[in-house]
Write a structure and sequence with these properties.
Layout: E1 58-61, E2 68-73, E3 80-85, H1 89-95
Antiparallel strand pairs: 1-2, 2-3
Length: 98
Amino acid sequence: MARPYKTRDPQPMKRDPVIETAPPLPNEDRPAVLVQVPTVPTVHCARCGGVKFNNNSATRPSLAADKMTRRKQCMKCGQWHVIQSEPTEIERARYWGK
């Protein structure tokens, strides 16, 4: 014989939930400060002018300079672009050593 289905709490809740107020935020009374961040120049596709690139880029150290050679593919037209940029700290430690 199958046992009848039972819930964990057969009695419905009959009390109202207690609404808690959040503590005040730190520095809530101070005005916000605008911080100027230098913008990175956006790379545009030479063929279609798109600014979105796929994540399947190939990155290798440049043999001629202390830079990284990055290949990016445009999402609109599929054109590949070769870009030279500064290496990150992890890339610098990996490829150029001390």
